[in-house]
Write a structure and sequence with these properties.
Layout (H helix, E strand, L loop, with lengths): L1 H38 L6 H5 L9 E21 L2 E11 L4 E10 L15 E10 L19 E3 L4 H8 L7 E4 L17 H42 L1
Parallel strand pairs: 1-5, 3-6
Antiparallel strand pairs: 1-2, 1-4, 2-3, 4-6
Length: 237
């Protein structure tokens, strides 16, 4: 009985993981197709993006505004080519709205408490980027406080938390700059793992689930046959 429950639980979990990977792959494929469709469009202004009712994820943006060079957020544990560093975020003021800007990646120093020296421009004029809606990872615990200490190291981009720190209202998205700039590495990758890899994982989990079920099925059938032969033998005696 216990072996049956364990096997059924394992098979259900494996099938659930296969289904999850499949849907992840489909979502990635849909996003890649969406990016390809909007990439041919002209860049929009921040003010135009704010008026749209449709999905704005990955839309191209051309931004002009003033930057507060003091309010710098460093998102920790960002890896580029095997080297740890930070994603640099700053607060910009457009014509009608403040917005969070992702300037790109900078390398960290050998000592963790020795933060890199980051210099932001005072203004951006016609800077090109993409609209990115940050996702909240419940597995990440924020270690930063709301004290105005700059630069501020944070664990993930939480718009609500950043609003509380800077005492300003922000839209629920970030402009991730994509054009080149000295001092920052910009390698915008909206889809890190391709859909094909998710599909491969889905096939693997499905195969493991089927294999586990077959092993249990044949083991159970062999047990029933052995019990049946034993019973027949005892009746003949």
């Amino acid at each position: 009985m216990i072996s049956t429950l364990v096997t059924l639980c394992a098979v259900v979990i494996m099938f659930a993981l296969a289904n999850w990977q499949l849907h992840r792959g489909l979502d990635k494929a849909q996003r890649i197709q969406s990016i390809a469709s909007v990439s041919s469009n002209a860049s929009l202004s921040l003010e135009r993006v704010l008026t749209l009712d449709k999905d704005i994820q990955d839309l191209p943006v051309s931004f002009t505004g003033a930057i507060d060079p003091q309010k710098i957020f460093l998102v920790d544990n960002r890896i580029h080519q095997g080297r740890p560093g930070f994603d640099v975020y700053g607060v910009a003021q457009g014509q009608t709205q403040n917005v969070l800007i992702n300037f790109g990646w900078v390398a960290g120093n050998s000592m963790r408490n020795d933060l890199p020296q980051v210099i932001l421009p005072n203004t951006l004029s016609g800077a090109l980027g993409r609209v990115v809606e940050p996702t909240d990872n419940p597995m990440i615990t924020e270690t930063a406080t709301q004290e105005a200490i700059w630069p501020k190291v944070i664990q993930q981009v939480d718009i609500h938390f950043i609003e509380q720190v800077i005492k300003l209202e922000l839209p629920p998205f970030v402009i991730t700059l994509t054009d080149s700039s000295d001092g920052f590495i910009r390698n915008w990758q909206p889809v890190v793992m391709p859909p094909e890899k998710h599909y491969a994982y889905a096939v693997q989990w499905m195969g493991l689930g089927i294999a586990a079920f077959l092993v249990y099925f044949f083991a159970l059938r062999a047990r029933f046959r052995a019990a049946h032969k034993k019973g027949s033998h005892e009746q003949h005696e």
